[in-house]
Amino acid sequence: MEIKLEDLKVLYSEEQLNTRIKEIAQELDNFYKGEEVTAICVLKGAVMFATELVKDLNMPVKMEFIRLSSYGSGTSTSGKVNAVDIKLPDLNGKNVLIIEDIVDTGLTAKFLTDFIHMNFNVKSFKFCSLLDKKITRKVDIEPDYYGFEVDNRFVVGFGLDYDGYYRNLRYIGYKS
Ligand code: 5GP
User: Fold this and answer.
1) Residue with CA nearest ligand 1 atom 16
2) Which residue of 9, 68, 71, 155 sits with most ligand 1 atoms within 8 Å of its CB, as the best mutation to test the pocket?
C-alpha cells in the first residue's frame, strides 16, 4: 500500500494536538508536584510528541532517548519488538516517564514496562502515549496518559511514519 501526501486526511490537527499536549503536561505536573522526572522518548516515532510535551512541564526534567522498532516498512506490526538501542543511566529511585507515539498491540509498552522494572527499582513509572489504538491490543496493558484514541487505521504525521516518510507533518493524518 502506498500512501501519497495528497491522499492524507487530517485526523487530529496541529491545534488539537497542541491543546491536548498542554492538557497532558498539566496532568503530569499535577502528578509529579515538582519532583524530578526522567523522560524517556521512544525513537523515532515519539520525537515530536516528546519534545513538545517536555517544554510544558514545570519540574526538573532529564531526557533520555531509546530506539525500538516493531514495524518494518509496512503498515502492520511485525509482532516482535526489537531493542535497537537502549542505553540508559541508573534509574534506581527515579521517577520514570516513558513517552511513546502510539500504543497498538501493546507489545512495545509491555516490553518497555518489563525492561524498566527488571533492571531498576524506580520511584515511579508512568507510560504516556500520544495515541491509543485500544481496539488492536493484544496484551493487557494501558497507557497511564494518552492524548487521543484512534480506531483501527494506520496513521502518520507528527513523528509517525510510513516507510520513513511523513514524520515531519504538523498533524496526524490517515489515508482516505
Ligand atoms: P505496538 O508494539 O503497540 O504494537 O506498536 C507500537 C509501535 O508500532 C508504535 O510505536 C509505532 O511505531 C508503530 N505503530 C503502531 N500503529 C501505528 C500507526 O497507525 N501508524 C504508524 N506510523 N505507526 C504505528
Assistant:
1) 104
2) 71
**pTM to 2 decimal places:** 0.94
Give helix 47-55 / helix 14-32 axis angle, nearest 10°: 60
Whether 104 is catalytic is yes
Q: What is the pLDDT of residues 44-69, one digit of tens each?
A: 999 999 999 999 999 999 999 999 87
> Which atom, in ligand 1's list, is nearest to the CA of 107?
2
- Please name which of 52, 89, 83, 55 lies closest in space to residue 70, comparing C-alpha atoms: 83
CATH code at position 155:
3.40.50.2020
Atom nearest to 108 CA in ligand 1: 2
Residue span of the structural domain in which 11 resides: 5-175
CA distance 54 to 29: 11
**CA end-to-end span of the chain:** 12
User: Residue 158, class by beta-carbon neighbours within 10 Å (0-12 exposed, 13-18 middle, 19+ buried)?
Assistant: buried
Q: What is the pLDDT of residues 90-111, one digit of tens each?
A: 999 999 999 999 999 999 999 9
